[in-house]
Design brief:
Layout (H helix, E strand, L loop, with lengths): L2 H14 L3 H16 L4 H28 L20 H8 L2 H4 L3 E5 L6 H14 L4 E5 H9 L5 H4 L1 H4 L3 E7 L6 H14 L4 E6 L3 H4 L6 H13 L1 E5 L8 H5 L13
Parallel strand pairs: 1-4, 1-5, 2-3, 3-4
Bound molecules: adenosine-5'-diphosphate and magnesium ion.
Length: 259
């Protein structure tokens, strides 16, 4: 049979078998193979690699959509010189994702605008790029989500237990009532040693007690969160206000010197 007809038949076969990327690159890969006298095995290898890469990329896209990240940022976009309290080596260690593999937590603490959410998103992006699942919620969304709907909260919690990495952003802006505190405790307990949490908070651990109706539940939650964890305390200026501050529009939020 004529080579062009065979190629067409192979392409149709690949499409039918849902090997779309292989079908797309068949023609150029065939041409190159005959020009460079590539071995049969290398030829097949090239086609398979193309398919696998395309599938992985599609998979990353799907997992990125499912993660519901508020924006897409990586640590390459992070200006370490602006925020010297963020240790580049410590972030590099986190970006290896050993903490995800070992089901450990990361807690990012600090005032508004210092890059807590940025770092949390960047860790989620890296998690997804390495083939794992991630899911992003704010504390407010988490509580609203668990209290809505006809299903019991325990059933709705499944979505929050499944991902390898769960980001809980903005813990500390809203005080939790007893019900919400119980759900949060339940979530943290059920993920404990099973899946990582990256949490951001504007409150130091000392102030966590004020967020919960009882000190006992605050310490039970912290106990589980902190057992296998890394805490990053970010001190410094808000990046959001940096340009305004430079222009002298905003005062520094530091206490005035006594003298
Ligand atoms: P936080 O969650 O601590 O309140 P964000 O992470 O939301 O602060 O940061 C506020 C904005 O400033 C975001 O757009 C973030 O990408 C940016 N940002 C913060 N810190 C830095 C930094 N050091 N380098 C680059 N961008 C930063
Ligand atoms: Mg934030």
């Amino acid at each position: 049979m004529q080579p062009a007809l065979v190629e067409e038949r192979v392409r149709l076969g690949l499409e039918r078998l849902r090997l779309g990327r292989m079908a797309e690159v068949l023609s150029p890969v065939c041409e190159e193979a005959s020009r460079e006298s590539v071995s049969y095995l290398d030829f097949l290898d090239q086609l398979l690699q193309a398919e696998q890469t395309a599938r992985f990329e599609r998979n990353v896209e799907v997992r990125t959509r499912l993660a519901r990240l508020p924006y897409h940022k990586t640590m390459a976009d992070f200006d370490y010189s602006f925020q010297p309290s963020v240790d580049k080596k410590q972030i590099a260690e986190l970006l290896t994702l050993r903490f995800v593999e070992q089901r450990e937590n990361v807690l990012l603490l600090g005032p508004p605008g210092v890059g807590k959410s940025h770092i949390a998103v960047a860790l989620a992006v890296e998690t997804i790029a390495k083939g794992y699942s991630a899911y992003f919620v704010t504390m407010q969304y988490l509580i609203d989500y668990l209290s809505e709907g006809s299903e019991p909260a325990v059933a709705r919690m499944r979505v929050l237990l499944r991902p390898k990495l769960l980001v809980i952003d903005e813990v500390g802006y809203l005080p939790l009532d007893r019900q919400a505190a119980n759900w949060f405790f339940e979530l943290v307990s059920r993920r404990y040693e099973k899946g990582s949490i990256v949490l951001t908070s504007n409150k130091s651990y000392g102030d966590w007690a004020t967020l919960f109706p009882e000190v006992a539940i605050a310490s039970a939650i912290l106990d589980r969160l902190l057992h296998h964890s890394t805490t990053i305390n970010i001190r410094g200026d808000s990046y959001r206000l940096k340009d305004k501050r430079r222009a002298g529009l905003v005062q520094r939020l530091e206490p005035a010197p006594d003298s």
